[in-house]
Amino acid sequence: MYGIPIPGEEGAETGTVLGEDVSNGSNEAKPGGGDEIEDLVQREIASLRTPSRNKSHYFTQIRLNVECLLFSKTVPPIDPVAMAHQISVDMKRDAEIAAVATDEAIEKGRAVPMTRSFRYLNRLTPITASGRATEKGVRHVALEVLWPWFKLSLQPANSLGEKDDDDSTSPIYAALKKMQGTAENKPDYTFAIRPSFRHHHELERRSVIDLVAALIDQNHHKVDLVNPDKIILIEIFRYTCGMSVVDGDWNSLRKYNLSELSNLQLKNKEPQDLAKVTGTITTTREGGDTVTIGPTEGEK
Fold first, then answer.
1. Is 291 helix (H, G, I), strand (E, B) or coil?
2. Over 50: is that where the pLDDT of 211 sits?
3. Nearest CA among 2, 4, 71, 85 for reference residue 242
4. Considering only CA atoms, which of 163, 133, 164, 129 is closest in space to residue 147?
5. How far is CA 233 from CA 45, 49, 137, 225, 248, in A?
6. Where do runs of H (alpha helix) occur along 61-188?
7. Does Cell division count among this protein's keywords (predicted)?
8. Is the pTM higher than 0.90?
9. What is the sign, positive or negative, of the torsion defined by CA atoms of 154, 155, 160, 162?
10. Pairing of strands 240-247, 129-132
């Protein structure tokens, strides 16, 4: 499920199920009768007190003190990009199924609930790697994130006219320089860069875009702001920079906005159809005021 191993399929050697020890696959009762239940209870209590050495934490919440932002760190085998994409695809599919049910409700004249909302989550933003929100930090994160997808134009930082120190001696730069010969076979993806800033005022949007774009071989990859093959997401919040490369359907999936995806069918309905389903209709008066008209008391 979204790359998360299902409990019971990890090959754990020991564990408990409903208070029964399954370490050796045997659930035979001990002879002695009366003490059996008490033994089971004691073993269950002992298992709760003893931390499992095989327990894995696939999600770890990290507090960033940024309003309206939840950050969860993942570990392999979870791929945050693949997970966010699949959740969004599933949400869109469910919305399309709901749209079919809505059409049937319209034909039969029944009112059905339409709007869905989420208590804690609105939009998913995958981050493959993160670092410091400085010019050098953004460049290092970009090198790590971009090389699996793009042929890079590796140049020392000082040759790009940047003020900070040259990073051509960094381990990432040196490793990518050696691998550059294998980049010739990479597909010539078109790309777009989409930066986002939260509580950060040091780096400017244009400079971040230019900095990341300068790392990509423009002779092999072209910019396409309308229908790109790959989209480079850059999230800068406070002093941290996160980055990932997502597929071009990020736009059609409403930028992984789950609320918009789940209510997608509402935007595709004519006003008269919405009135049949929800019992309300929105109209505009001569003065430009928007008015929502609902059912009368006798119709409720």
1. strand
2. yes
3. 71
4. 129
5. 47, 43, 15, 13, 11
6. 80-108, 135-146, 171-179
7. no
8. no
9. positive
10. antiparallel
How many distinct helices (H) and strands (E) make up the chain? 8, 10
Q: How many CB atoms lie within 10 A of CB 257?
A: 16
The 240-247 sheet, strands edge to edge? 129-132, 240-247, 230-237, 191-198
Angstrom distance (rounded) from CA 262 to CA 264? 6
Which of 75 and 145 is assigned the larger pLDDT?
145
Handedness of CA 213, 260, 198, 146 (dihedral sign): negative
Structure tokens that stand for 130 in this block? 């993160």
Q: Confidence class of residue 171 from pLDDT cuts 50, 70 and 90?
A: low
Strands 230-237 and 191-198: parallel
The two tokens of residue 68 are 């309206």
What's the CA gap between 178 and 154, in Å, rounded?
11
Polymer length of the chain: 300
Q: 258: which 2 tokens?
A: 């789950």
48/46 Cα distance (integer angstroms): 5
Strands in the chain per DSSP E: 16-17, 20-21, 59-62, 71-74, 129-132, 191-198, 230-237, 240-247, 281-284, 290-293
pLDDT at 15: 34
102 SS3 class: helix
**CA–CA gap between residue 59 and residue 76 (Å, rounded):** 10
Write out the residue limits of the CATH 3.30.2300.10 domain(s) in the chain.
58-269
Domain 58-269 has CATH 3.30.2300.10: yes
Q: Are 208 and 188 in contact (CB under 8 A)?
A: no
pLDDT number for residue 9 = 55
150: Cβ contacts below 8 Å, ≥ 6 apart: 183, 186, 189, 191, 216, 217, 220, 221, 230
Which residue's entry shows tokens 């209709």?
281
**How many of the other CB atoms lie within 10 Å of CB of 118?**
10
d(CA 65, CA 68): 9
